[in-house]
Structure formats: C-alpha cells, structure tokens
C-alpha cells in the first residue's frame, strides 16, 4: 500500500503523545495513514516508550483456544485470539513479557507471538544432552541489551550432576550453555516456569524466580553426598537476565515456616507468596523490590464453604479493591471482597473453557525485530 503524505496540523510532540495512548491494535492500522505516523509508530523509541503506560489484561488459554480479557473494562468480554500455527495441540506452558506470549508445546517447539501485531517466531528447545532432559524454564527481558531471553532447564537422573541451564537470546538468535547449577539446589519434582515480575523502570521484567529446596549442610561421601531432611530449606532461586547470573535468597521464616503451605506467584506484577493453612485461612504477601527483605501482607482470605484455599490462585486487585482469583480446579474466575468477606463469580461474556491464566499487555514489540544485532524496523 502506498503511504500518503499528510499535512502536519498537530505539533509533532503532541501527536507523539496522543499516539502513545492508543491501543496497540489501533496503532497497527494507523501505520498506513501517512509516512509521519508510520515513522513514529514503527520507531524503536516509540515502541519502548509505549511500555511505560501499558494497560494489563488477562490471557486465558487451553489446549485449543487463547482468549484476551480486559478484566478492568466496563463490559468484560473474552476476545478470541487466532494462534498463528495450524497445529496448536499439546500446549504445555505459557508466559508473557512486554506483549510477547512465549508458548511451549509438548514437542519442544516454542512460539514467540505478539497477538496485537500477529507476528511470531518459532524456536526449538535444546536437544536432550546425555542424561539431561530439557524443559522450559522461563521468559523475560534484558533491558540493558534490549534483548528477550528464554531459559531452558535440563534435569537428569543423577542428582550429583546438578541442573543444566541454557539461555536463548533473541538478539543473537541462538542458545548459550551456562554453568550447571549445583546439585544442592533442587527444583520441585515438576519444575514450573520461573516467575517474572515487573520491577521498577531500571529492572523491568529482568529477573526470574523459582521456588527450590536448598541443602545447607551436607557431608561428601565417595560417589555421593549425605544430608538430613532437616538440613534443607525452602529458598528462592533468582536469575538476573542482564548479568545471566543466579543467586539464592532464603524465604522469610515468619511467612514460610516448615509447617505452612505456600506457593510463589505473580500478583498484579509483583512477586508474591500465597500462604495457606489446614484450617482454611489464606494470606497474600507481596515483595517490595526496593528492599530485599521487605514483605507486606496485603489480604487474608477466611475459610470458604466447600472450597479449600489451595484451590485458588490469586491474580490481582481490582479497581474497587476486590481480589481477582482463579478457581483452578473448576476453571473459573471469582472475586473476593475484603470488606464483607464474600466470594462471587466474575462474569465474562463469550468465555470459552480455559485452564491457564496469565497477565498480559498489548504492545508493538516484535519477536522478529532484533536479530543478529540489527534492528530490522
């Protein structure tokens, strides 16, 4: 399509700011208005600037559907998203960062997809190496190098070999093998993708977190290590995607005692702990990123009739103060009111069945824009 020249009526700085407030899908259409608009909308500066004012939504997925929900809109409706591949069976994991969905299929294929621009890129998990079997470990953004990275974790039968780690760089379009994690950092039986949190402007979407067991005391014996079950603790494993370095943080004792049950999660973009007891009470704690040891208890959910606390996964706080929860076993969303302690269904029009819920934003970030060190815009 031939791009038109348009007469500049609105000052350029005002026009730039107006365009920043428009939805990503509208901006995709407006690229054809004229050359000036096209140059603004496709510039790297504009695309990065748009991330500062994004509006979070939800993506609800199942083995055969992807749905986008503006959960804070006046009329909540599920919009169907068209997956770019014909074969979408075998969905295993899904993550989101800066408008890119990272979807892992059971055959080891990874799809980086921006539903707003309909651009996508396919990546293959590293091949199994010896005794190690690779799984998807997480997805995030290295703001220092303007690079999106995928983490793969390799687990073997021999515990002393530890965990292998490989990182895919979208900028370099290749995998890089990292030093093995030592054996005394133990993932759960079925490793879950790392939790990605927003962070501040400088560290946005840069750190992944996993819940692990960390063995503090052990004795080397020929061919193996010995430790007592009380010598290992629950800990966070953190990966800084900019430095590509791991570290471990112990969990707060007052929250994560050995007697308590808890899950690490993302609550409204913040690192969170969802703690619950056998009596049916549940607490939501969030981490203050500026202070390493600062945790704040936001909400306590009392026992609910016929519903166990482990059946819920907290998502975020709504504008009216209610807490949006995912009722996992029934694949439903519900709202908890902290004032009257009531639980009610969250009605969404045209909703299809789903089994996964993640936070997502609509942006213009392209999975194909930066490859081999060049900006292809």
Number of helices: 4
CATH architecture of the largest domain: 6 Propeller
State the distance separating the first and last CA atoms: 17 Å
Q: Proportion of β residues?
A: 35-45%
Uncertain stretches of 5 or more adjacent residues: none
The largest sheet, given as strand count, sense and whether it forms a barrel, is: 5 strands, antiparallel
Count the E strands.
29
Portion of residues in helices? under 10%
Computed CA radius of gyration, to the nearest angstrom: 22 Å
The secondary structure category is: mainly beta
- Quick one: overall form? globular
The chain-level mean pLDDT equals: 82
CATH topology of the largest domain: Neuraminidase
Number of domains: 2
The level-1 CATH class of the largest domain: Mainly Beta
Protein name: F-box domain-containing protein
Pfam family, one: F-box
InterPro entries: F-box-assoc_dom_typ1, F-box-assoc_interact_dom, F-box-like_dom_sf, F-box_dom, Gal_Oxase/kelch_b-propeller, SCF_F-box_component
What does this 3D model show about the protein?
A hairpin with a 4-residue loop joins β6 and β7 (119-124). The longest helix is centred in the N-terminal third of the chain and has 9 residues, at 12-20. 8% of the residues lie in helices and 44% in strands. The chain has helices at 12-20, 24-30, 35-41, 44-50, and strands spanning 56-61, 66-69, 78-81, 91-97, 100-105, 109-114, 119-124, 133-142, 147-155, 163-169, 174-181, 185-187, 195-196, 207-215, 219-221, 224-226, 232-240, 245-250, 261-267, 270-276, 282-287, 295-301, 312-317, 323-327, 332-337, 342-345, 356-361, 370-371, 374-375. It comes from Manihot esculenta (Cassava). Residues 10-50 form the F-box domain. This is F-box domain-containing protein.
């Amino acid at each position: 399509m031939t791009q038109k020249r348009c007469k500049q009526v609105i000052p350029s700085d005002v026009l730039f700011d107006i365009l920043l407030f428009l939805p990503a899908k509208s901006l995709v259409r407006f690229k054809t208005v004229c050359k000036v608009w096209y140059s603004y909308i496709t510039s790297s500066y504009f695309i990065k600037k748009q991330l500062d004012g994004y509006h979070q939504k939800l993506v609800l997925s199942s083995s055969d559907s992807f749905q986008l929900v503006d959960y804070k809109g006046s009329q909540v409706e599920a919009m169907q998203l068209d997956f770019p591949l014909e074969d979408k069976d075998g969905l295993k994991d899904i993550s989101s960062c800066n408008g890119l969905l990272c979807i892992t299929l059971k055959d080891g294929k990874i799809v980086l997809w921006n539903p707003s621009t309909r651009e996508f890129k396919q990546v293959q998990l590293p091949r199994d190496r010896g005794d190690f079997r690779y799984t998807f470990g997480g997805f995030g953004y290295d703001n220092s190098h303007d690079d999106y990275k995928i983490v793969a974790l390799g687990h073997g039968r021999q515990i002393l070999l530890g965990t292998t780690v490989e990182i895919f760089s979208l900028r370099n379009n290749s995998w890089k093998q990292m030093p093995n994690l030592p054996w005394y950092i133990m993932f759960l039986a079925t490793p879950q993708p790392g939790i990605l949190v927003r962070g501040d402007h400088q560290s946005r979407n840069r750190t992944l977190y996993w819940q692990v067991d960390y063995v503090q005391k052990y004795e080397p014996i020929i061919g193996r290590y010995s430790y007592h079950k009380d010598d290992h603790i629950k800990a966070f494993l953190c990966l800084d995607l900019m430095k590509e370095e791991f570290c471990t943080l112990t969990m707060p004792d007052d929250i994560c005692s050995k007697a308590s049950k808890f899950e690490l999660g993302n609550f409204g973009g913040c690192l969170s702990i969802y703690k619950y007891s056998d009596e049916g009470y549940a607490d939501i704690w969030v981490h203050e990123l500026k202070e390493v040891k600062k945790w704040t208890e936001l909400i306590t959910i009392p026992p609910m009739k016929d519903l166990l606390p482990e059946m819920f996964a907290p998502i975020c706080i709504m504008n009216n103060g209610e807490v949006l929860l995912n009722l996992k076993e029934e694949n439903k969303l519900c709202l908890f009111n902290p004032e009257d302690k009531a639980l009610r269904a969250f009605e969404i029009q045209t909703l299809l069945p789903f089994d996964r819920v993640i936070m997502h934003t609509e942006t213009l970030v392209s999975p194909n824009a930066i490859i081999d060190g060049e900006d292809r815009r």
